[in-house]
Amino acid sequence: MSDLPITDEGRVTHHFHPTILRSYDIRGIVGQTLSTSDAFAIGLGFAHIIARDSETKEAPHIAMGRDGRLTSPELAEALARGLQAGGAKVSDIGVGPTPMLYFADRILDCDGAIQITGSHNPKDYNGFKMVKRHASFFGDDIQALGALLEDGVRPADGGSYQARDIFADYCNRLLDGFDAPLETLVWDTGNGAAGPAVEQITSQLSGTHHTLFTAIDGHFPNHHPDPVDPHTLAFLRDKVAECGAICGLGFDGDGDRLGIIDAKGRQVPGDLLTAFLAIEYLQRCPGADILFDVKSSQAAMAIVTQAGGTPLLWKTGHSHMKSRMVEIGCELAGEMSGHIFIKDGYYGFDDALYVALRVLRAMAVTGQSITAFMDSLPPSYTSPECRVPCADELKFGVMDGVAKAVQEAYPAEAITLIDGIRITDETGWWLIRASNTEAALVVRAEGLSEEALATKTAELENILATQGITWRMPS
Description:
Elements: E1 26-29, H1 36-52, E2 61-66, H2 72-85, E3 89-95, H3 98-107, E4 112-116, E5 125-132, E6 135-136, H4 140-151, E7 160-163, H5 167-175, E8 184-188, H6 195-202, E9 208-212, H7 234-243, E10 247-251, E11 258-262, E12 267-268, H8 270-284, E13 289-293, H9 298-306, E14 310-314, H10 318-328, E15 332-334, E16 340-342, H11 352-366, H12 370-376, E17 386-389, H13 392-409, E18 415-416, E19 421-425, E20 428-434, E21 440-447, H14 450-465
Parallel strand pairs: 2-3, 2-4, 3-7, 8-9, 8-10, 13-14, 13-15
Antiparallel strand pairs: 1-5, 4-5, 5-6, 10-11, 11-12, 15-16, 17-21, 18-19, 19-20, 20-21
Helix pairs in contact: 1-2, 1-4, 8-9, 8-11
């Protein structure tokens, strides 16, 4: 069954590397902190949890899928064995974007689902995103999974395996009801898992479509699959200019994050993209809540307020945002990272392909292109979202030190602790938080003027210096 230790009572035990059990998924470096033994244990433990918490005695039905990383097949084989050892009925949808796995979870009416993916991380990373009863399995759930395996899990009977092809159904659902007239567009999937789906849907759309790097290749030979990093968007920006496209659409490695380049070559941040979508949505649903993550700008929230909506802040992270949407009944949410969630007419999970189509539809319905929207904005004095290298073993200790420093330096009313530390006053704000997906701190600042932004940036740099981190905001 596996080479994992077995207790005298017949329980399989396993110890995970402490850095891989993260806030909203499991992720590590394959061969260093993450292994096929981890994958087997995750399958066994997850199947046990789903069966334990089920209201029936039937074998739990669990869908699984994987991205195109080089290590995903071996992890998938081990995961499938673990799920079956836990007594699960496994439906394997094969290679595809993470939102296709979320879609499978819904249409196959699964009890749980797991996607093997390293998302936008470097090619030696991989990991697992999990769903239980159509909701994110994260935070305390992941820690409980680790504790369960430490104690040991007794294998169960009744496991089975079936390959399921839902690719065509997924693409058809993306296109369901889409009838907006289109012009010239560029799509860049960066050799990630969304490539075949982009080829399929663009073949059925009006307009002229130029697709870049849609062949799945875990070596990522053309550029890193992160549509928020400005450096990865160079190919997209150049192709938009060459073709005179109305915009360019970029996707991360597993297709749940979207980046956009407008016709003038400007990168559209995730918070502003959420605000753009909110304008059309609020015309139909005035007064609705629009949820932003804590990294989002005051400028984006002001757009929502002006459009008649109510902007709200919440914790960064796809699992945190989806859970909060359910709690407050919100139908549109977005993060700076390009995770955007639409329940209005869809399922509420982060699907970059669907979001791309909704952006195109919003342009057609409102008559305002994404370029015209960017032109209409007042001057912006915001920093990019930056990552400050900080080892996984150190970053949370650094954040504890930052928290003590700000409590000594700032009044309580200026401090927001929803996720990380955000300091706000009448001239702007700055944020420091520990990344849950990388060995880094995430920082951002915004000011009402260039001078105010410079002041906020200096405050941020000085606070980091109190923790022994010398870092300067790039110009």
